[in-house]
# Entry
Amino acid sequence: MSGRRSRISEEEIKELISKLRFLLPETSRQGGSRASAAKLLQETCNYIESLHRDVDDLSDRLTELMATMDISSAQAEIVRSLLRS
Amino acid sequence: MKSSTRNPNPNPDTPRFGPSKLMVAFRFLRALTLVHRTAPNSSNAARSRRIQRAAFASMAYSAGPRRAWSRALLWRLHFHRARRLCAGRSRAAGVPRRPSTTRSPADELRRLVPGGTGMDYCSLLEETADYIRCLSEQVKLMQSVVDSGGPRGR
# Structure
């Protein structure tokens, strides 16, 4: 019974891992499905860290920009483009 | 002729009624306005931290309690807000620490994804996928704010 459960989990895990691989940027995807799960997890960690750094950098840039930019017009533009897409 | 706006989601993995980009954008832009209005005399570093918090907050609020990572972020944000009122400076809430390099990849992932510690492997993978999706959307949103606030948007 526990054997059957682990088999189902293995398939689930493979599916989830391939979903993750799909989410990573092109440059991080290693060759095909032969990449080990550990490697993929490492790439995922790298990607998340780089996203966190992006948020950090963009926060700094927004801080600088806020002093001069007109937020309401930026808001209007962003909402308009989101409604269009 | 443009197709109906309610077109069925072609990708069965992304929830049809998940956090809409519009919702996240509204929250984040509203938070930006607040930071702009209420902290005119703060240092740039302090305002940057507030914007960073606002980014994670708008992500988490829009995702709501349906995800472990958003629940963990929301808890962290509230907890740190209470601490900040009592204590002095602290690291920006909701911002994950820099992980050490001696852990296994799965454990490292657990530290990076909010709420990941103690999660089983399967849930961790699911949460990670959702977290990455929302995080990358947040980055795109912030980038578009920067783009529209540039020299053109005066």
